[in-house]
């Protein structure tokens, strides 16, 4: 029997969050919304009430914290003296949601990559670690699907993507991928970790597809010029 899939939306704590319009759009398709510390600030601006708050509460505003309490949002609070980022802890909470509700989790993350380059780099590491949760990172200017042989293995694009820039970056050793329907096509190509072999391709056909046979790859579609 096939498991039901639930979308779990994590609104992360980037100091440069994505737009309120994007947050509202993403929330419409989510069965569970998790505010990741300062992500609560972005949610209050968007008028979207989360189902859970996760973090050490060191960057959430006083206004957003009072709002979370007023809305009686359940919270998983942690000490600031911890070994993991709030995003990692939120991913653990998303996995627990799937186990508790006997559903397959499809993770969507937003407001995660702006402002701090060290944190932004770690976002992709965390997404690779939780590749089995089929993560998709969505910001105002791009979509990044994390493809793997343990989660989502392929991504078929649509007509709206034709002509747009596309990149693929390996996040783990021995990552093997194929790309069809792009300006430069490859078949079973092994990409070196974090190097530029898969950068700056272009979508050529309405059914262009990237697939990951082994390892983990971050596949980027740039939605704006």
Query: Sheet bearing the most strands, described?
Result: 10 strands, mixed
Number of strands: 14
CATH superfamily of the largest domain: Thiamin pyrophosphokinase, catalytic domain
Q: Quick one: overall form?
A: globular
Q: What level of helicity do the residues show? A: 10-25%
Name the strands of the widest sheet in spatial order. Answer: 4-3-2-1-5-6-7-14-9-12
Report the structural category. alpha/beta
Spell out the helices and strands N to C. EHEHEHEHEHEEEEEEEEE
Average pLDDT value?
A: 96
Low-confidence stretches: none
Total number of domains = 2
Percent of residues in beta strands? 25-35%
**Name of the CATH first level of the largest domain:** Alpha Beta
Domain Thiamin pyrophosphokinase catalytic: 24-130
Keywords: ATP-binding, Kinase, Nucleotide-binding, Transferase
Protein name: Thiamine diphosphokinase
GO molecular function, one term: kinase activity
List the helices and strands and how they pair.
Blueprint: E1 5-11, H1 20-27, E2 32-36, H2 39-46, E3 52-55, H3 62-70, E4 75-77, H4 86-101, E5 104-110, H5 117-129, E6 136-138, E7 142-148, E8 154-156, E9 165-170, E10 175-180, E11 186-191, E12 201-202, E13 209-214, E14 216-222
Parallel strand pairs: 1-2, 1-5, 2-3, 3-4, 5-6
Antiparallel strand pairs: 6-7, 7-14, 8-13, 9-12, 9-14, 10-11, 10-13
Helix pairs in contact: 1-2, 2-3
